[in-house]
Amino acid sequence: MRSVKEPMRLLVVEDEKKVSSFIKKGLEEEGYAVDVAFDGKTGLQMAMDRVHDLIVLDIHLPGLDGLSVLHELRMGKVSTPVLLLTVRANIEDKVLGLDAGADDYLTKPFAFQELVARIRALLRRQTEAKLPVLRFADLTLDPARRTVFRGARKIDLTAKEYGLLDYFIRNPGRVLTRTMIADHVWDYNFDSMTNIIDVYVNYLRRKIDSDREHKLIHTVRGVGYVLKQE
Ligand code: CA
């Protein structure tokens, strides 16, 4: 459950500082928490490191452009809604953006109220998808809000940790090999992934199981991991 004290968190990736500070200020007045990145690489990193409810992404960015950021996010299984911004109604940008997995599109210059209306619509659409809340033991994962609780305690996960837990909680009691985890959560080749998977499972464990009497994520030696009560 999202309490009043936890506003929805948005990420704004926009290199024009006047525009990004205008958007940030306006959205904060609307009650959102706002992170800002001024280039694509930083924006991508922030989107991977922390779960956001929505990303406002400028297409024309220095270094890594907006479409590449979007592509990387979707490849990394980050499904956060993305609202793309561009300078002109360039049909090619629009098509490429939607193909790359953007959820909506806004042409600059825009009225702030239109931006807010689009953001509200996207957030509502996502919440209304009414994805069932997943539970295992006292662990709760709410896909519509992308929140995780163990008992009454909210657990903040990075996008990758969230993806990993999502896979575990959809397969309770089933031994998940590193190959399976690599396939489902990373989409990458297994051989290069072994160590990374162990590292991320350990991050997740630290957040879910440390200081808990009943551990939920268990190692199956030489095979992989299993979510179970013991
Ligand atoms: Ca720009």
Write the layout of secondary structure elements.
Blueprint: E1 9-13, H1 17-29, E2 33-37, H2 40-49, E3 54-58, H3 66-75, E4 82-86, H4 91-99, E5 104-107, H5 112-128, E6 134-136, E7 139-142, E8 147-150, E9 153-155, H6 159-169, E10 176-177, H7 178-186, H8 194-208, E11 217-220, E12 224-227
Parallel strand pairs: 1-2, 1-3, 3-4, 4-5
Antiparallel strand pairs: 6-7, 7-8, 8-9, 10-12, 11-12
Bound molecules: calcium ion.
Notes on the structure:
With 230 residues, the chain is of the alpha/beta class. The chain contains eight helices and twelve strands. The chain has helices spanning 17-29, 40-49, 66-75, 91-99, 112-128, 159-169, 178-186, 194-208; strands at 9-13, 33-37, 54-58, 82-86, 104-107, 134-136, 139-142, 147-150, 153-155, 176-177, 217-220, 224-227. β8 (147-150) and β9 form a beta hairpin. α2 (40-49) packs parallel to α3 (66-75), α6 packs across α7 and α6 packs across α8. The model is unreliable at 1-5 (pLDDT under 50). Calcium ion binds at residues 15-16, 58, 60-61.
